[in-house]
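Workshop exercise sheet. Pairs work together: one partner reads the sequence aloud, the other fills in the structure field after running the prediction. Swap roles for the next sheet.
Pair: D.N. / O.F.
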Amino acid sequence: MYFSHLINSLRQGSAGLQRQYQAYGGDPVICGAASLEQAGPNQLSFLEEGNSLVAELEKSQAGAILLPDQDDLIALSENHGLAWAAFTNPRLAFAESLEILYPARRIVAEIHPSAVIAERVELAAGVSIGAQVYIGEDCKIGAGTILHPGVVLYPNVIIEDNCEVHANAVLHLGCRLGRGCVIHSNAVIGSEGFGFVPTEQGWRKIPQTGRVFLEENVEVGCNSAIDRPAVGETRIGAGTKIDNLVQIGHGVAVGHGCALASQVGIAGGARLGNGVILAGQVGVANRVVIGDRTIASSRTGVHSEIPAGQVVSGFPAIANRQWLRCSAIYKKLPEMANDLRKLKQSIKD
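Structure field:
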């Protein structure tokens, strides 16, 4: 595909085309996409405003690049002989480009002969069921949904239209998926919550009779687990995106449009508002409430309520600006401790 044709296809997108320029050598043919460091002459790349990879721009072998509408970056691209297009949101433009350059593979609606489907299962039109899939009693699968090989659905699972459940994912008893959800390989939805009562004879298990509800357009990464509670529900709000290796405990409520990065752990009963972002390895304690649009940086430990709109860091969580000041002091602690010992000794003398 010629670069000019690709840009014309992006004009109707939401990334906001501002300006465009073809390289001195003409209109390059774009066959794929790659990072600035790895892109070749027939590949597309992109750069965001404030990106630390600006230095790579002058060395890049990319055939064309998507940029913010920023004169200095545009000048660098032209001096390097790159075709470019400037967008309000170049990352979004790059995402839309990938959809054009790498169209999704069309999956035929069929049921593999090795699939096991129990009684009273309702399958809507256009459902695709892969090899070795198991579907328990009283499940309902919506139109256009894809179940890849090895998926297991326990009884009474309801999956609405146009969902995709990847290989070897498991949905336990009574789970509900809204329209357009994506569950990646080896994720487990509705596993038993960690509920035990200590007794003189040891730990007494609490039956986990609740359910897990994923609202529409939720995405769950590989090897993540979302537990069901003893009673009631665990609910993930519409549009929330969950990375790989995330643990969400029993009875948690996650709002709309949240983003939970890899190795986040949320203990039972926690409440997250809308638009919350938890970076990698953030831990949230039992029954903690986190307000709308809160951001917790990597490895933050959240042990108490966080008001809406805060940016927090550290363990336990404090305001990000305060944490940055504390971090700057941390490396000076040995020197400060030595000065304190000397001061104490001088007072004694």
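Discussion prompt: DSSP finds six helices and 37 strands in the chain. What would you look at next?
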